[in-house]
């Protein structure tokens, strides 16, 4: 490896680390303090970088968008949930009952990670149209994944093919971050209680 190539890789790694710190700081501040009160200087101070570095990373709205992408999918690039290896492994489990349990745990874990951020973004959308548009795009992708993924339930004999649309509507509500947050934050349910309720509610949706 040439010195120039090595130095280029080092710069890229350093830039990626700085961006990750900025996004981490932004996410924590948006959730804790709200989107509007959080300034670029606040993000810089929390990330331990200059405010110029934060501005170079993007506008506040674009940072929120990047944070949402990362929280929902694990990185800033959108990849359908159905294409992610960890989710595909669940769907390929030969034991349907075990697969359902793993699916519920996957959903609960994901919503525990994103529910507060999603709530902060929803509030921010009142003052920033671009964030509202991103939330809408994210929700449409989620609904599309759920509708497509409902074919798995048909294949396993849990629902009828003609019931896919109705089942997908029910699943979109049951598995949403808003539903998770309502029960675990607003109603004070434990995660364990919510997990049991979600598993039971999904089972009751089968025909």
What does this protein structure show overall?
The protein has 207 residues and is an all-alpha fold. It has 10 helices and no strands. It has helices at 3-33, 40-47, 51-57, 60-73, 85-91, 96-124, 129-155, 164-174, 177-186, 191-204. Helix 1 crosses helix 2 (40-47) and helix 6 packs across helix 9. The longest helix is centred in the first third of the chain and has 31 residues, at 3-33. The chain is globular and about 55 Å long. The mean pLDDT is 91.
Give a count of the beta strands, DSSP E runs of length 2 or more: 0
- Counting DSSP H or I runs of 4 or more residues, the number of helices is 10
* CA-based shape: globular
Rg for CA atoms:
20 Å
> Mind describing the biggest β-sheet?
none
Order of helices and strands: HHHHHHHHHH
Helix content: over 70%
**Chain-averaged pLDDT:** 91
The assigned structural class equals mainly alpha
Distance between the termini: 61 Å
* Contiguous runs where pLDDT drops below 50 for at least 5 residues: none
Strand content: under 5%
Write a concise keyword list for the protein shown above.
207 residues, mainly alpha, 10 helices, 76% helix
């Amino acid at each position: 490896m040439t010195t120039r190539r090595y130095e280029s890789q080092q710069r890229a790694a350093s830039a990626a680390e700085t961006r990750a710190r900025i996004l981490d700081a932004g996410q924590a501040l948006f959730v804790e303090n709200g989107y509007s009160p959080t300034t670029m200087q606040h993000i810089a101070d929390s990330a331990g970088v200059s405010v110029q570095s934060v501005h170079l990373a993007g506008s506040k709205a674009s940072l929120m968008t990047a944070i949402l992408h990362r929280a929902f999918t694990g990185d800033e690039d959108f990849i359908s949930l159905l294409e992610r290896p960890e989710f595909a492994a669940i769907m390929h489990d030969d034991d349907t009952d075990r697969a359902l349990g793993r699916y519920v745990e996957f959903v609960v874990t994901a919503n525990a990670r994103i529910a507060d951020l999603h709530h902060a973004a929803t509030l921010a959308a009142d003052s920033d149209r671009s964030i509202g548009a991103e939330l809408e795009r994210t929700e449409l992708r989620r609904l599309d994944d759920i509708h497509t993924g409902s074919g798995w339930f048909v294949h396993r004999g849990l629902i009828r093919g003609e019931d896919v649309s109705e089942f997908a509507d029910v699943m979109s509500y049951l598995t949403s971050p808003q539903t998770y947050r309502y029960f675990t934050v607003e109603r004070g349910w434990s995660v364990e209680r919510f997990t049991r309720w979600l598993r039971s509610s999904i089972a009751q949706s089968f025909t």
